[in-house]
Amino acid sequence: MSGRLHLTVNGTPRTLRGAADASLLDVLRSDLGLSGPRFGCGSGLCGACFVLVDGRPAASCGYPASAAAGRDIITVEGLADGAGLHPVQQAFLDEQAAQCGYCTAGMVISAVALLRAQPAPAAEEVRRALDGNLCRCGTQQRVVRAVLRAARTMAAGGDAAGGAAERPGGAAARRTTTAAEAPGAAR
Amino acid sequence: MTADAGTAGAAGPGGGLPASLAANPLLSDWLDFGDDGAVTIRSGKVEFGQGVWTALAQVAAEELDVDLARVRVAPVSTAASPDEGVTSGSRSVEDSGAALRQACAQARAILLRAAAAKLGVAERALRVSDGRILTAGGDTGLSYWSLAGPGLLARPAGPPLPVRQAGEWSVAGRSAARLDLPDKIAGRPRFVHDLRLPGMAFGRVIRPPGPAAALSGLGDPGLPPGVLAVVRDGSFLGVVAESDRAAAAAAAAVAAAARWAERDSLPDEDDLKGFLLTAPAEVACVARRHDPAAAAAVSRTLTAEYTRPYLAHASMAPSCAVARWDEGTVTVWTHSQGVFPLRRALADGLAVDAARVVVHHVEGAGAYGHNGADDAALDAVLLARAVPGRPVRVMWSRQDELAWSPFGSAMLARLSAGLDSSGRIRTWRQDVWSCGFNGRPGAGGQPRLLALGHLAGGRPMAPAPDGPASGAVGSTRNAVPGYDIPDLVVTRHRLEAMPLRTSALRSLGAFLNVFAIESFVDELAAAAAADPVAFRLAHLRDPRGRRVIEEAAALAGWSPGARRRRGEGTGLGLGYARYKGTAGYCAAVAEVDAVTDVRLLRLWLAVDVGRVINPDGVINQVEGGAVQSASWTLRERVRFSRSRVTSVNWDSYPVLRFSEVPQVAVRLVPAPGEPETGAGELAQGPVAAAIGNAVAEAVGVRVRDLPLTREQVVKAIEAG
Predict the structure, then answer these.
(1) CA B255 to CA B221: how far, in whole Å?
(2) Which of A57, B264, B399, B604 has the most CB atoms lying inside 10 A of its own CB?
């Protein structure tokens, strides 16, 4: 028992040795080489390390890897079908909903979980669902906009990866906005 | 995005060339054309989420006439990049953008000359489309890539060439998607935290419990397997291990075995005012203008004091670095904002030749001033020295990040102003007490890296410099009100003590100075029975300043007498400043609800930052700055006992959460004929003032001590 740990990460069964006492975050980053879940505080207070455990967001920094055995672990790397982006990720790109991006993956995880439970959330519900994710850069408003956009895209049947017919780097690149028309500009 | 000292203008010595280009004149240092149809640009400015690389790529694409998708931005490194100092002070687009624009214009001219010679036509018969050389007859088959042979751009910049004006732009001036976001949103490795080098070992530093604590003993820590070294040097204590897991276990064991002598060295956190006013300070004049007639007309004088506590940088990622020590040659990977100053500081601190130190920038999380990146770089070098030849990665704990990264200083501003019988401000006195804001590596000729003070024989870090009092580069940034006031004296009291380490934090002294000035202006307006907007406009001739105030007020639906719009307990307030007195203009209106707690509902901002390269990038920066300022204003305060910092995680150092963030509307006021200025810092002061003025309107009492928590409001009400 103490020697081997069996995990299913992003749909792939993995067997690890010497990791039973580690945190799930440490296993994902150090043993499995993933970079999406990030260390922010080590106390489950910031959301940078969020992953889906059996479909629910969990702070992987404080989650014993041993407790994850037998559960379905999804990181931001495993959200999309195939090589594209999940509609939530695409919406983050379309809304340019990040500055430094360190905590973005954790927010995407929270948003995906929300939209599975509530496909058409109100802005207030999005804010509540993301309250465990901190953003020091102050992009919360864009993130809320991105989650609402993703909800619309997915409702319209764009649940396939990148299904919104948006190329990466979408909206801001396509638009030829002038200063006064830029997204977020008030009239 | 971040604040700092410095005065480099767009043009300097070098025959009218932009200062950065004059200092780094070789064109090939700035750009080259690969054989893959791409243009690689090099800047000395680093990306930390502020979007500067995207804006610089737009500048290059514009001047060269190539598609934006062809432009790559090379990582900044002391081995390959132009030395542009520190990425700070909202000057990147101004400085690096101007240099790149001119370098690209010269490169384009050189390439067109080569094309003309090859084709036997006049240069003026040629034009460029996405890097291909065209004549009236069509494509010549030549392109930048076929023309730019080795060495063609390895020449110094010539006399300045005309560059494209904003009215002619097609790539710049339009919102562009950030180049760095696809990786970050996909979770791909991009941060220094993600760096994995062959043979890499993992280090941890065990910090003292407080700023004045010293290591007094180390019992037998009982180390776990996999430990490569325990480094003990004075009060510097670290471990290196084969894995991050082993390093963490070893660090915990060493921490448990370490004994520290603690000493009370910190002020009373509940009497910062007393500390600021009684600590030894150097007094200097910031600005002075005398008008005896105006002073004689004063019929009424008001005085007030405003304070802010120490504020933490509080980046979401702990500081991190990787270093390798090879027989005296040091290689560092860091998210430092200034790889060249860090190289000099490391060389100085470790007594090695700077030529043997190479510093590579790798992205980190957001930087909002001087964070722990440089200190983590030294930590990594000190640990790497114990395992020569192996890269060592060091990442701080959240607790160390919040306790040991430099803070923005606590500040006090004492204001006094005289009104004449018609309600005009005739005199103004402002005294500012603060520790220094310029504590970056190299400031004051000292390396200023944290661990140097912990090493055996190391001396405590000297108090941070603050720049010349008249320079607006430290605590005095925006200490001089921008209004038309005939008689004015502004004085700085720079503390000569530094019990808590201070350095640059976004907007430096402007945050508290503008909060104080703009709160006080509202108090003066009330005394003059004037509407705050009309009162400001009556004291402000600058048309660009007037315009942002008018636009912000209009956005918010401001009308005199209608500020308590939804009944008791809510209020609107306005704040305004021209950042640094010389840069971008910003006015903010806040709507708060202060019935039970202080809740910020909405912010409306109007900004004029001159011509704009990436409008959505500017709006993102202004929104982010506004939200961060709101967080400082409403929540943040570094907590400490007499011996140690106690706000070491997000429960003890709360920042604004999703459910608490207001709706933010930003209006860019077009000013295409004006030079570009930074956008990352200009909202900090006006937003704080707008919130303060809205709270005063909502509760009927002025709260002058930040943060504007429920407790502070209650205290102000009780004080009457």
Answers:
(1) 8
(2) B604
Nearest to B328 by CA among B268, B389, B279, B269: B389
pLDDT at B563: 58
ipTM: 0.95
The reported pLDDT for the residue numbered B660 is: 97
Chain A positions in Cβ-Cβ contact with residue B667 (cut-off 8 Å): 180, 185-186
Q: Which residues of B381-399 are buried (b: 16+ CB within 10 A; e: fewer)?
A: bbbbbbbeebbbbbbbbbb
Mean pLDDT over residues B395-418, rounded?
Answer: 98
Name chain A contacts of B620, Cβ cutoff 8 Å: 96, 99, 139, 142, 184
Write out the E strands in B349-410.
357-361, 392-395, 407-408
The rounded distance, in Å, linking the Cα atoms of B709 and B716 is: 11
Q: Nearest CA to B330 among B378, B364, B394, B363?
A: B378
pLDDT at B441 over 70: yes
**Dist. CA B500–CA B503, nearest whole Å:** 10
Contact B655 A134 (CB under 8 A): yes
Cα–Cα dist B435/B474, whole Å = 9
Are the C-beta atoms of residues B76 and B70 closer than 8 Å to each other? Answer: no
Q: Between chains, do A172 and B651 touch, taking CB under 8 Å as contact?
A: no
Residue in the structure block whose two tokens are 């707690």 = B597
B634-662: pLDDT as tens digits: 999 999 999 999 999 999 999 999 999 99
The residue of chain A nearest to residue B67, with distances taken between CA atoms, is: A173
Interface of A with B in 52-111 (CB under 8 A): 75-77, 85, 89, 92-93, 96, 98-105, 108
Q: Where are the beta strands (DSSP E) in B175-327?
A: 201-205, 214-218, 227-233, 236-241, 258-261, 281-289, 298-308, 311-312, 320-326
Contact (Cβ atoms closer than 8 angstroms) between residue A103 and residue B200: no
Tally the C-alpha atoms within 13 A of residue A178's C-alpha that lie toward its C-beta. Answer: 9
